[in-house]
UniProtKB/TrEMBL annotation:
SUPFAM superfamilies: Staphylococcal nuclease (SSF50199). It comes from the Bacteria. PANTHER family: EBNA2 BINDING PROTEIN P100, SERINE_THREONINE-PROTEIN KINASE 31. The keyword Nuclease applies. GO terms for molecular function: endonuclease activity; hydrolase activity; nucleic acid binding. InterPro entries: SNase_OB-fold_sf, Staphylococal_nuclease_OB-fold, Thermonucl_AS. Gene3D superfamilies: 2.40.50.90. It comes from Desulfuromonas acetoxidans (strain DSM 684 / 11070). This is Nuclease (SNase-like).
Length: 174
């Protein structure tokens, strides 16, 4: 009798673990309509909240200390960064505002600001994160590891070679 009770308890525990695993996997994918574009790499999705695109970083709309990241990598000059920031936001808006997107989270689900970290899949099947890199609207966020990092670094390098977006050669004023 005692072993039977232990067996039932173990079975229930295993079932709970399996169900919990399935539920956590299901929670890793979300769908929702994009209702707002904060900047090139931050959107708001109805029913989900603020979403930060995993693995990329777009310039800020106003000059900041973060500009050095872009400049160190060989991107355009200070003034051109503001233009790219505006362009990245506009491009993100064109691609997904008022569209239903699929969000796929990585290992880290939230950043330190409470934003959901996700790969954003557009209705046509393309990944927004990748598109922004291909167009030179963003750099790879190098500080943390993520599943698409090597692929993203390749896309960034290609955009740089093709002098797209951030990587356009600009004439510096004297």
């Amino acid at each position: 009798m005692r072993y039977r009770r232990l067996s039932v308890q173990l079975t229930i525990a295993l079932l709970l673990i399996l169900v919990g695993g399935v539920l956590s996997q299901a929670a890793a994918e979300h769908y929702g309509k994009v209702s707002w574009i904060g900047d090139g790499d931050t959107i708001t999705v109805d029913g989900v909240g603020v979403v930060r695109l995993i693995g990329i970083d777009c310039p800020e709309k106003e000059e900041s200390d973060r500009d050095w990241k872009f400049l160190r990598l060989g991107s355009c000059d200070w003034q051109a960064l503001r233009h790219v920031a505006q362009s990245a936001r506009q491009r993100t808006k064109e691609l997904c505002l008022h569209q239903v997107v699929q969000l796929q989270t990585g290992e880290e689900r939230f950043d330190r600001y409470g934003r959901l970290l996700a790969y954003v899949w557009l209705p046509d099947g393309r990944m927004l994160n990748q598109l922004l890199l291909e167009e030179g609207q963003a750099i790879v966020y190098r500080r943390f590891d993520f599943s698409e990092k090597e692929n993203f670094l390749t896309l960034e390098k290609k955009a740089r070679t093709q002098q797209r977006g951030l990587w356009r050669v600009t004439k510096h004023r004297s």
